[in-house]
From TrEMBL:
The lineage of its organism: Bacteria, Pseudomonadati, Pseudomonadota, Gammaproteobacteria, Thiohalorhabdales. Keywords: Methyltransferase, S-adenosyl-L-methionine, Transferase. The keyword Cell cycle does not apply. It comes from Thiohalorhabdus methylotrophus. InterPro entries: Gly/Sar_N_MeTrfase, Methyltransf_25, SAM-dependent_MTases_sf. GO terms for biological process: methylation. It is an enzyme of class 2 (transferase). Its EC number is 2.1.1.222, 2.1.1.64. GO terms for molecular function: 2-polyprenyl-6-hydroxyphenol methylase activity; 3-demethylubiquinol 3-O-methyltransferase activity. Residues 52-151 form the Methyltransferase domain. This is Class I SAM-dependent methyltransferase. CDD domains: AdoMet_MTases.
Length: 254
């Protein structure tokens, strides 16, 4: 994610180095893998993808998994700390990445290269950290310029439609195995969660509530075509029952 567009809150500790160490516990990667199976790998291999840029790599869980599946993977993040964590994990696990580097979403094609990748993936609800509509537009347009003609953008986000329309704010919203999350603010402009860990740590994270139709239109406005949606890696899906929404768009070949 692009550092310059993150909301930094010294009172809540959002996105500090310490909270970055809890990132894999905020996103329950084991649960995501169990529910999604090899959805991402199957999708990429089915589309004959060879090179991938994971532009919200975090600590490298997705990037390393894709590299192990035989893809050429560049891991990128707006946080130097996250990139360092990814490099450390790659070294420890003996996984070769094409590159791991800091990159700004707004200038992704300049940081990573224009028309370079068969696919750009932006996972873990990272895109919801952009609060300005112009920033979201500019980021998706930069994603578009980074993908080769015929290539894919795969972006996932929390199902904010369900949160806003079903009134789930009064009960815990479970995330990882050792963390519970409560919405402390929930409206059309802001969703803020407080994460409470079993070890006593607490963090707050603020996200922009991305509506499903809005994201699809954002991809289309940038030039992506044949935009498809999945709910919890399935299609068809219940619009208000899925926890996560995956959106897939293709850059035209010519």
């Amino acid at each position: 994610m692009s550092v310059r567009n993150l909301q930094m809150d010294p009172q809540s500790g959002e996105h500090t180095l310490r909270s970055a160490d809890y990132r894999d516990r905020l996103v329950d990667w084991e649960s995501r893998a169990a529910s999604g199976g090899d959805f991402l790998e199957r999708l990429l291999h089915r589309q004959d993808v060879r090179s991938v840029a994971d532009v919200a790599c975090g600590t490298g869980v997705t990037a390393l998994g894709l590299a192990r599946s035989g893809l050429t993977v560049t891991a990128a993040d707006g946080s130097p700390h996250m990139v360092a964590k990814t490099r450390e994990a790659a070294d420890e696990q003996g996984v070769a990445l094409a590159d791991a580097r800091v990159a700004d979403w707004m200038r992704l094609d300049r940081d990573l290269g224009a028309n370079r990748f068969d696919a750009v993936v932006c996972l873990g609800d990272a895109f919801s950290h952009l609060f300005e509509s112009e920033a979201r537009r500019d980021a998706v347009e930069a994603f578009y310029r980074t993908v080769r003609p015929g290539g894919l953008l795969i972006l996932d986000h929390r199902n904010y439609d369900a949160l806003l329309e079903s009134g789930t704010g009064s009960r815990p919203y479970q995330s990882g195995q050792d963390v519970e999350a409560w919405p402390t603010a929930l409206n059309r402009y802001l969703t803020r969660f407080e994460y409470r860990f079993r070890d006593g740590a607490r963090f707050q994270r603020s996200m922009y509530p991305l509506r499903q139709d809005y994201v699809s239109h954002l991809l289309e406005d940038a030039g992506f075509v044949d935009v498809e949606r999945f709910g919890d890696f399935q299609r068809p899906y219940n619009r208000l029952a899925a926890r996560l929404i995956q959106q897939v768009g293709r850059k035209p070949r010519g």
